Amino acid sequence: MTAQKKTKAKADQVQGAAKETAGKLVGNERLTAEGRAQRAKGDGRESVEKAKDAFKR
Questions:
Q1: What are phi and psi of 27, to 5 degrees?
Q2: CA neighbor of 49 nearest in space, from 11, 17, 4
Q3: What is the per-residue DSSP string for 22-52?
Q4: Which residues does the chain have with pLDDT short of 50?
Q5: Helix (H, G, I), strand (E, B) or coil at 29
Q6: pTM of this prediction?
Q7: Helices 2-26, 29-56: crossing angle, 10 deg rounding
């Protein structure tokens, strides 16, 4: 199950980066902020999964 969670975290990071870039290109602050938030959410999920992996070893 952790592989699915890692994939979801990475997907959030990629989608967030895309939204942030698109928002900057068109000058849409709301889209840029949404992208940052989504990327941060993915970063948080990834950190949690890495911590779980560290404790398993």
A1: 75, 25
A2: 4
A3: HHHHHT-HHHHHHHHHHHHHHHHHHHHHHHH
A4: none
A5: helix
A6: 0.84
A7: 160
